[in-house]
Amino acid sequence: MQEMNIIVCAKQIPDPEAPFSNVSVNVEKKEVLVDAPDVISPYDENALEAAIRIKEEMGGKITVLSMGRKVADTVLRKTIAAGADSLILLEDPAFERLESRSTAYVLACAIKKIGAYDLILTGRQAGDWDSGQVGLILAEILGIPCISLARSVKIKDGKVLVEKTIPVGYEAVQAGLPALVTVSNEVGELRYVARTKMLGLLKRPMTIPKWGTKDLIDNVEKLSKLQLVEMATPPDMRRACLFIEGSTPQEKAGKLAAVFKELG
Amino acid sequence: MTPERAFFWKIEGVWLFYTVAFLAVALFLIGVGAYLYVWLKSTPKHKITFSRQALKQTLLDTFLGLRVFKGDLSAGIMHSSLFWGFVILFIGTCLLMIHEYLYSFLKGKSHLLFEVSMEIGGLILLAGIIWALIRRYIQRVARLERRLEDGLVPFWLLTVVLSGFALEALRLVLQKPAWGHWSFAGAWAAGLFTDSLAASAYPYLWWGHALLSLGFIAVIPFTKLFHMVGGPAALFLHHSENGSKEAALLSEEQNDAWNMGEVVFFDACMRCGRCAQACPSTGAGEPFTPRDFIQATRKALWQKHSPKGDIRLLTHDREIDRLAAWYCTTCAACLEVCPIYGAAFKFTAKKRTALIIEGKEVPDLLNQTLERLFNYENPWVSSKRERAAWAKGLDVPALSPGGEGAPLCYFVGCTTSFDARAQGIAKSFSAILKRSGVRFGILGEKEPCCGDLPRVVGETGLFQEKMENCGILFEKNHIEEVVTSSPHCFHTFLNEYAGKAFRVRHYVSVLKELIADGRLQLKMPMKFFVTYHDPCYLGRHNRIFDEPREIIRAIPDIQLVEMAHHGSDSLCCGAGGGRMWQGNELHGEARMSEIRIREAHATGAEILITACPLCLIMLEDALKTLGLEKKLRIMDLNELVLEALE
Amino acid sequence: MSEVLLLVETKEGLLDKKTLELIRGGSELAKDLGVGVSAIAVGSETGALAESIASYGLKKIYRLEHPLLKGFMPDVWVGALEWLCKQIVPKVFLFSHSFIGKEVAPRLAFRLNTDLTTDCIGLKVDPQDGLLIRTKPIYGGNAIAALKCAGLPQIVTVRKNAFEPVEPVQGRSDIIQMVPDLNEAMIKVQSLKTVPEQIVELDKANVVIAGGRGISEKEDLEMLKALAKAMSKSYGNVMLGCSRPVVDKCWLSSDHQVGLTGSMIAPDTYIAVGISGAIQHLVGMIRSKKIIAINTDPGCNMFKVADYGVLEDYKAFIPALVKKLEE
User: For the residues of C289-320, what is the DSSP string, one character each?
Assistant: First the structure.
């Protein structure tokens, strides 16, 4: 069986599972402030898990790409600790808050710079904006087959076999390599990375290439930033609860049934 | 004629006997050698300290066997019979060999004494075997297994003893010595045989008995009989480690590698099943028993380190559940009852450490919980900012050093800080401290996690980090006196934090002190029937059984009744060992917490009192799921005491 | 011809309600832009589908038909819509934020050299430049972002229930058949088989009745099921949901779970029975139109976010409610 050359695109974001009271909106700066550590976007972790399982089965190499204004290798080294082989950071202020198309474009430039690959895996959507576009657009730019919402990814006879979630159940599809697959959480949670492993890795010196616009983009004007008109806080979750009065459950039940009728 | 035993009386081909004996002993020694080989090979570093104290404890445990009596008088008597019967016969045989080959002293009165002793020894042994067989096959004691090995071994020994007595009987029939009646059992049996039958049967029975006995010795290492050798060895290593600081540090370093004491223990375990009987997980019908886990670990160790595989001939061990290592609640009920101090929770801990490092077999929810703990300093889905939210409006002082003496740092803990029900503990305790005029304070948002959860689930790296962070924080804040809500925090600080510069107590100790010196006056009569649930980490792990009860009894008019399982055999609520944060992959036929609530309900008590936030949450949940909210009320000890202050 | 286009979708062979919502949204935008709103029906046989939306005030209905468009193969659907957009050159293209929308829209937007915004809960035309202001929730709903993108067509996917569905009107839309230029070489992903599964899709429910920790016995879930049955007669699709403890007890499978680690839903009515309202659960149902809480604990969180509260033991209340509904 051939060895697989896999690229995983992983985004670093503020923890989407941060407690609610830790998230606030700066309306003037049109920014969301999250008082929480940065993590790897959860679906991207699933993509990494899928990649590692393929590597365990058939051998190969996993390269992780991460893109942003500031990408902390302390966060991304977790991918190496989990089983990836190398990490490339795409770091540049120009890479911040880009439209999905531009994000995909930068990733495509980086992938072209990396060279040959068999499979690109990424999460179905990022945990911050949940747009769900970059993976699909990336496949379009690279001109490779694109499969989304994978709940299992396997390689067989030089093809990628995916079970993808569809409204009625699932569909088994296949495509030739190289291909791009966006992955959903059903492929499996990323295996646990023990703290001792992580600390050991953090202590080790590692060469992590950092590419910016000068390494990747000929014309920075090509990158379009998000045009935010406004950033607002969501409305207060609390509602004025009207307690149904009554001396017996039956009486209250009758009143509630009436409420239902009224709501329609 | 002087009474004396005729050696090899009327037996020809004695050389054959010696050959077989030699082979039997050789097999025995080879077997034991195999164990030594595996033990040494599987433990990377071993340092055994010899101390007289350890030796003394070992001898006491081996010869008095008090732990075998503990909780099961019948088993104790049965085992003592086996033990002493065997020992008497063994000593007798040795004396006989000395007499024959070195110095003949068993003559005359000595011989008669010898004969009587051997009779008694044999009978005691026989009684023990029969009792053992009755317990296992007729009474069918639940914790005793009935595999082939379990029947074969006592049965074999039975044939050895019976053939011995029968042989003696035949010899007496043929020899007719004047002193024959001193061998009273054999003499009685002699009456069953005619001279001619005796003559023809004698040589066969002699060789038969010889082969059975020698064979018995030979198979010791290949069956669970090895506990005769392994048991005392395990006891000695346990007692040595207990006293040795070096050993404790060494075992700290070793993370997931086994140490000598553990490896010997696995082989010494003879499947008595007391651990399975005591284990709350087993009791709840979960796919975990300490016994099976230990035996599976033993087998895996042999398969890994022994070139010929497992030395035991008839094991047929059950395969353990894939998630077995995660079921243990670390309640230490097994350690309480194991005659050779086996602590299954220490073994599951090592397995968990290995699983954590490997990463793939960590249950999803635990995976997420550990990440959350790392990111937010608590395993609940809560923000660090909310850590002191329970204290809002209660005027709870923040910890401020300076002034006379060190203030008491009330270490609230993650669960007590964030869980709505458990917050009641913090509210009550802080109110009590204020009323008593104790100078105390809380760390508030700065309060870190003590690291107990990562420790018990095998994330030793994360625990080390928490321990260091906590240590640094305490030092920075000049914290010398700590009191905790949770027995888990208490246990971790007290026993697992290395080189700490602060004193730590659980709140029951503080309450007791306040009552004793009069700062707390429990005046309000509370005419209730109450029962008390001993939390595992307060009770079994740290032997604090009496103080909570004293505090309860200090309340006027209160009546304390005990549940069926209380004190050192209290039943675990099911939250320990990280189980509070495990999902529904780990489940059994019943819930441990529900089993406990039923016990509480059965006492007729109106209030169930506990002293641990995890127990509190688990028991409250079980109360709801059993629909007993109107029948029983659950209170933390602080809440009870506060009501008695009013 | 500049117009507002929208993609028609089906559900179990019939017109999907989301399309009617899109028509409403599209019509409002079209009015502001001074253009018409049209729809596209895609498939190998689109006659019936086109008919089903012919009376909703659309200017045109494009029937995009080709044998390769049978079923749903993203590669050909994207190709077909790309072809159509190059023919028609729409001003705005609306998709539902649905399985098809999520698959097709990003790739189509790329091919048309324009930027897509997904999961919009609001759309407005900026009068200054005629661009759409797209409003969408981000950070799990902790913030609401409004943004603009350059490029034509202005393309978005729209969240369910962002607009009210339109009612039928007088008149009939023009139906135009178009055959896109497709070929098999476009298909890069082969479908091997489709396996239907019994999945509880709570987001399809109009009413969700959810049980929580306060439910004391598994058997009591039957009570909730009876309530669901009674309500389903008049209140649409009624489903059973739950909070995490019920799944942990293995009383219901995890696809019934509502919350942070379950489904995020926004049904018309959410009835929380014995659920305290921990934030992890609230996240999953807080956007329900109406929330009714039934609990014995007056201080529980759920009452703070509910529209109606019943302080009663469910064991007595639910059967009584079922009886009243059956009357």
Answer: SEEEEEES-TT-HHHHH-SEEEES-HHHHHHH
